[in-house]
Design goal:
This protein is an alpha/beta fold. It has two domains: 362 residues, Purple Acid Phosphatase, chain A, domain 2, CATH 3.60.21.10; 49 residues. It is 39% helix and 14% strand. Strands 4-3-2-1-12-13-14 form a seven-stranded mixed beta sheet. Helix 4 runs parallel beside helix 6 and helix 11 crosses helix 12. The longest helix is centred in the last third of the chain and has 22 residues. It is globular, with a radius of gyration of 24 Å.
Length: 504
């Protein structure tokens, strides 16, 4: 049992009550990407130029001011670390590294995930030092696991983070790692939100491990496999912005000739084999049985409930709200990856060629005649392509019924999500719904000159009548400003960022 786990049982009530809570989602801390010597735009968003470690340390100091030096409960609500985008390899590995890992990053195995977090810690020393100072002031930190940091399930990874924070024993008592949700002060339910996204949902956060031959891995959902195998090999696409890689055929065409043609002339080949790998692995992982221990499953449920300030019944009922994983429907994934159109074109060419070979036995004519029926097929192909729409963005937002049921199960009046990178504050029936947005280096352009509205957080504090109230804020240039000044709703990140620039 780790020191943090041992302390939890001894300090049972420390996390149950809170006056001031700050919820921050989607920091996506990752390794530093060195500037490419020839193509300076290659993964520019990952370079140290866009690290926000100093700003985050200032943000933590600002939280103490906002709480009037009272203890603050900081919930890092998922995707705090981006293990999927880490592709650095150890110099002298003590474990086998496959060819695929050498190109797209290490698999989610405990010793390899530990190397990833060590790399992140090395490149973000200021961030960890700032978080350590924040904890030493008597504040608390809860790491809620999201879809990009599923490897936080490994105990060795958690221990590496605790070691990096360099806390005394009583300081370790103020840190928790939660499987997928946390209930703050009995009035606020906090979850990353990927469990409502079929493309990114963790199939079983209670039992996250699967057996692969002679090794244990965390089961990674399709959306994260797409990041690992596609985005990691396509350096001009920013994974933090959907509009940067989900485009129309015309937009892809223009994007290719503007940015990619010189650096990756064979991008189509990279896309094809990477997409096939993501499709096959997501489907096979979906079929692999979860590693479970029937003698300790109830202890596991009780432990998750304890760390989340919930009851075992709540854990079981919340688990029933998970959506069905997209990996169960390979056809849907093929459409998202454009593999259906690729296979349709390839199959048509092969079929016409086989037909030509048969006809050529009776009539001697040039192979070029084969292209006449192929050109006749093109209108049908274009019609089919236009009818296929991506549903990845459609299913990211939680459904109203899920919000209502979450409130009924946990007896809360407020639900806070992250994951979508879009801030929200609205009433859905009797439930107050907020989204804390993102701190990730998301940009509208490859040049990283047009940042999206970011560095937002949810602040929950006592109101006039003593009942806690929640608002969405943005931290910019050392100042905190309210995002929704008049009423709740969805914020347009482009307008949000432009407004801040104009006021400056």
């Amino acid at each position: 049992m780790s020191p943090a786990e041992t302390s939890e049982s001894a300090h049972e009530n420390k996390f149950k009550e809170a006056q001031y809570s700050a919820v921050v989602s989607d920091l996506h801390l990752c390794e530093e990407e060195p500037v490419h010597p020839k193509y300076v735009l290659w993964k520019k968003y990952k370079t140290r130029q866009f690290f926000f470690d100093d700003e985050f340390c200032e943000f933590l100091k600002r939280l103490n001011e906002m709480s009037f030096d009272q203890p603050v409960e900081l919930i890092l609500n998922g995707d705090t670390f981006d293990f999927d985008s880490c592709i650095q390899l150890p110099d002298q590995p003590t474990y086998y590294i496959s060819w695929l890992e050498s190109k797209r990053g290490l698999h989610p195995q405990e010793e390899k995930s530990t190397f990833k977090i060590q790399t992140i810690i090395k490149d973000h020393k200021k961030w960890f030092a700032g978080l350590s100072n924040f904890l030493l002031k008597g504040n608390r930190v809860i790491f809620v696991i999201g879809n990009h940091d599923l490897e936080l399930h490994f105990k060795q990874v958690q221990q590496t983070i605790l070691n990096a924070l360099n806390l005394p024993e009583n300081g370790i008592n103020h840190v928790r790692f939660n499987e997928w949700f946390y209930i703050s002060n009995g009035d606020t339910y906090i979850e990353h939100g990927n469990q409502q996204d079929p493309y990114c949902m963790a199939q079983d956060p209670v039992n996250p491990y699967i057996q692969k031959f002679n090794r244990i891995e965390v089961r990674v959902p399709f959306g994260n496999l797409a990041t690992r195998y596609l985005i990691n090999g396509m350096g001009f696409f920013n994974p933090h912005s959907d509009s940067n890689y989900i485009m129309t055929p015309k937009q892809y065409f223009n994007f290719f000739f503007k940015y990619i043609s010189r650096a990756e002339p064979f991008l189509m080949v990279t896309w094809l084999w990477s997409s096939v790998v993501a499709l096959v692995q997501s489907f096979l992982d979906r079929l692999r049985p979860t590693i479970t221990d029937p003698l300790s499953i109830e202890d596991r449920i009780e432990k998750i409930a304890f760390k989340s300030n919930a009851t075992p019944r709540m854990v079981r009922e919340l688990k029933e709200l998970f959506v069905a994983p997209a990996a169960s429907y390979p056809i849907i994934i093929m459409k998202e990856l454009w593999l259906d159109r690729a296979f349709l074109i390839t199959g048509s060419i092969v079929l016409l060629y086989l037909l030509f070979l048969q006809v050529d036995q009776w009539v001697n004519f040039a192979i070029w005649w084969m292209f006449i029926p192929f050109f006749l097929f093109i209108p049908f192909f274009l019609f089919y392509s236009r009818s296929v729409k991506s549903t990845a963005q459609e299913f990211k937002e939680p459904k109203d019924t899920a919000l209502s049921l979450t409130g009924m199960i946990t007896k809360v009046s407020r639900v806070i999500y992250g994951h979508t990178h879009i801030v929200r504050h609205e009433m859905i029936g009797a439930i107050e719904h907020l989204n804390s947005g993102t701190w990730s280096p998301a940009f509208f352009d490859v040049e990283c000159e047009k940042p999206m509205g970011q560095k937002t957080f949810v602040w929950v504090c006592p109101g006039i009548k003593g009942i806690r109230e929640a608002k969405v804020y943005q931290f910019s240039r050392g100042k905190v400003s309210e995002v929704f000044v008049t009423s709740g709703g969805r914020a347009d990140r482009r307008k949000l960022n432009q407004g801040k620039a104009d006021s400056a």
